[in-house]
Amino acid sequence: MNFYQLQGSTAIVTGGSSGIGLACVELLLEAGAAVAFCGRDSDRLRSAEARLRERFPQARMLAQVCDVLDQASVDAFAQASLSTLGPARVLINNAGQGRVSTFADTTDAAWTEELQLKFFSVIYPVRAFMAQLQSQPGAAIVCVNSLLASQPEPHMVATSAARAGLKNLVRSMATEFAAKDIRVNGILIGLVESGQWRRRFEAREERDLDWSQWTAQLAQRKHIPLGRLGLPIEAARAILFLASPLSAYTTGSHIDVSGGLSRHA
After folding, report:
1. Domain with CATH 3.40.50.720 in the chain
2. pLDDT digits (tens, 9 = 90+) for 147-171
3. Contact 187, 242 (CB under 8 A)
4. I want to staple 213 with a disulfide (CB 3.0 to 4.6 A). Which of 28, 37, 209, 255 is the partner?
5. Sign of the CA dihedral 103, 263, 212, 186?
6. What is the C-alpha separation between 101 and 110, in angstroms, rounded?
7. Domain 10-192+231-256: homologous superfamily in CATH
8. Cα(128)–Cα(126) distance, integer angstroms
9. How many CA atoms lie within 13 Å of 54's alpha carbon, on the beta-carbon side?
10. How would DSSP label each residue in the chain?
11. Cα 59 → chain centroid
């Protein structure tokens, strides 16, 4: 599959053992790229790796436990990837989840944790892989972000603020890294099917509703024009476009993947 023009390239995916990250790994392998991906949960990571190796027996792949908030752990992942697969041409930063809290009930510790997660889950991998990316023509960094960056919600105040900061960081990095021939872009996701939503579904009060009915009602309550939650693969396709030469003249930008939920032009 040469559509994405990534055959023979090495790509890195953080948070790659489930959800959007795992969908990215699958698409990258389909495109003929070598892929190194990481996650914090060893069991989930090994399970994902086993399924991928069964599906892509000839693929060049590395799965490594890594805490993206630990610079030493990220540095070790970067070195292992370089030794195993060669220098990275693509870095996909995909880590973190939303925190439900208002300004009144967000503690100092929660603010610090949220800001550290959203910023340093990007800063540490970019630092660790920068030399590799600089050595590759047409390198790209893609950051998975949320629509909250442009459309904050009062019940997710810390996450909204941190997401807005990440959107700004993407633009700053894009400007600075252009001279290094490294493009930096992001996507803004709305409500996408995930383990987090599955857990909320299991805890639902409306026990007579199945997953499709429950998510359809959720989409209606959230006023999503397309009437459903997004799929991880739909976000992954937007990510791969930004990571690939197909978007060679695009940097400092974000693709909206929210089913029309965005109220901003």
Report:
1. 10-192+231-256
2. 999 999 999 999 999 999 999 999 9
3. yes
4. 209
5. negative
6. 9
7. NAD(P)-binding Rossmann-like Domain (3.40.50.720)
8. 5
9. 6
10. --TT--TT-EEEETTTTSHHHHHHHHHHHHTT-EEEEEES-HHHHHHHHHHHHHH-TT--EEEEE--TT-HHHHHHHHHHHHHHH-S-SEEEE-------B-TTT--HHHHHHHHHHHHHHHHHHHHHHHHHHHTSTTEEEEEEEEGGGTS--TTBHHHHHHHHHHHHHHHHHHHHHGGGTEEEEEEEE-SB--HHHHHHHHT-S-TT--HHHHHHHHHHHTT-TTSS-B-HHHHHHHHHHHHSGGGTT--S-EEEESTT-----
11. 22
Structure tokens at 66: 């890594």
Per-residue three-class SS string for 57-82:
CCCCEEEEECCCCCHHHHHHHHHHHH
**The model's pTM:** 0.95
The 10s digit of each residue's pLDDT in 49-62 is 999 999 999 999 99
Residue owning tokens 């991998």:
125
Q: How crowded is residue 134: how many other Cβ atoms within 10 Å of its Cβ?
A: 13
Walk across the sheet containing 34-39 and list its strands.
Answer: 61-65, 34-39, 10-13, 90-93, 139-146, 182-189, 254-257
